[in-house]
Amino acid sequence: QPGLISSRVLTDDGKSTGVLQAGRSLVQVRSVERLAILVALAAGLAALLAIILAGWFLTERALIPIRAAMDRQVRFTADASHELRTPLTIIDTGLQVLHRNRGQNFGDNRQVLESMSAETARMTRLVDDLLALARVDSGQAQVQLQPTDVSELVTATGLDWRRWRPGEVAE
Prior knowledge:
- The chain is of the alpha+beta class.
- Helix content is 69%, strand content 12%.
- It has helices spanning 27-100, 110-138, 150-164, and strands at residues 3-12, 15-25.
- Strands 1-2 form a two-stranded antiparallel ribbon.
- Strand 1 and strand 2 form a beta hairpin.
- The chain is rod-shaped, with a radius of gyration of 43 Å.
């Protein structure tokens, strides 16, 4: 078994009279060393597990606003695509009507041309708004709030709505 032995030479008037040896078993010391290593290893693994769990929790919390922003961006892209598709469809339909009626003059197709012109203006506003949003997002432009006439906005929205629902009677 492992042990620790200490030896000393005994002398009397310069003459060696013997050797004194003392020893102790190292079994208990090694047992305590093994226990200390196991405790340190267990504490290290517990700390590592706690760090991993805390990191995962904090990462998930930090990703919540990012995921929400990405969801809003996806919805915005879908809405913008839909808003741009509608005027393009109306313009395309108007062009098809004009194509079929080549013999007619512009006066005969005034309503079609006015609708196409209004949708072109609407699409231009949408694209301008998208560009303004892109500038604000990139930090190149600042938003300047200004008063808005809500009654004018409601009237314009109502007119747009009537234009999209041609079968209904306008008041």
